[in-house]
Amino acid sequence: xENTNTNNKxxxxxxxxxxxxxxxxxxxxxxxxxxxxxxxxxxxxxxxSTITVAVVNAIVMFCTFKAYTYAGRHGATxxxxxxxxxxxxxxxxxxxxxxxxxxxxxxxxxxxxxxxTINQQWGLPIWVGCxxxxxxxxxxxxxxxxxIVNIIGKIGPVVVAFLLFLGIIAAFKFFPQIPEGVEFIRxxxxxxxxxxxxxxxxxxxxGGCSILLVSAYMSAIGKELSIYPKKYTTVxxxxxxxxxxxxxxxxxxxxxxxxEASSTAAIPNLLIANSVFGAASGVFGVVFAIIILCSIYSTxxxxxxxxxxxxxxxxxxxxxxxxxxxxxxxxxxxxxxxxYAKLVNIxxxxxxxxxxxxxxxxxxxxIMFLMKERNNTAD
Length: 379
Hints:
The protein is 79% helix and 0% strand. It has 17 helices and no strands. The protein has helices at 12-26, 29-33, 35-41, 47-73, 79-87, 89-122, 126-142, 152-174, 178-187, 199-213, 215-224, 230-257, 259-262, 268-276, 281-309, 318-335, 340-378. The two termini are 19 Å apart.
């Protein structure tokens, strides 16, 4: 049963800690590398369209986060229980399949993003970086994640803060060049890989990807913070939705101003960082590359574990370890033939649409539950 205590006050530090952890879950190779900024935001060649993507994304994230935390206050603790809470067992299983497929697909471009970051910053062959990533992922997953310290919460906020700082600094250099970048895109002089059929659908797809990753975490927040007034979970949801949307939007506009170079770079944000920091880029570029690698590592290890442990529960068994190795080898083979940008485009776009369906269903049901709750209170 939901705790309706409205007297408890949450410390500012605890509030930021929860919000920071949410940001950590939302950060992946696509966000850290800048491929999401270019494909979802910059590709439209229009400032209003870029802002539209950010607004739709923020709405999708905020509403679904609220739906998750509301279900958490009523005892749901993962995607299955959240969907069963709102829609019943059949739909719950379907939405669980959506989340599994998305995690499995994301593992492909996370490994590729790791390899491409090493290639762009240090010039090593992409296959070397991908091989290192696979070894790290398989090595970590075969140990089982139960006893591994969750480093995502420490890395995520750092990445977001660095990206926002980078975007603000880069804006002074690249915002004045936006009109030129817009003309390059509209004239066809520069071709940019595009995610989504329209800015609205792009925002829906981008937000849909984000909400599939954090279902269990957000519902857990709702349950853990049920002793506090609802306003605190609302603030956490708002910070998560706005911080990602605003940061990626600013970087997207920066990439419009640098579209000739950003459209062809595997890691556009790294390109921006090395450009704006000038003489200091030797230091900041390396630091940012390491931050990106740590962010990707902290994301792809849980993904591999999630995908394999869904079918093989015993983490110590030979079957589990073999499945991890075979999965890693299979992903490595695919990544050698499909470019990183293409992987991001295909996976994020179409998996994002399935997340958009989850958003639509859960948000409508959440509003219905709220209306019913208020009517019962009035009665």
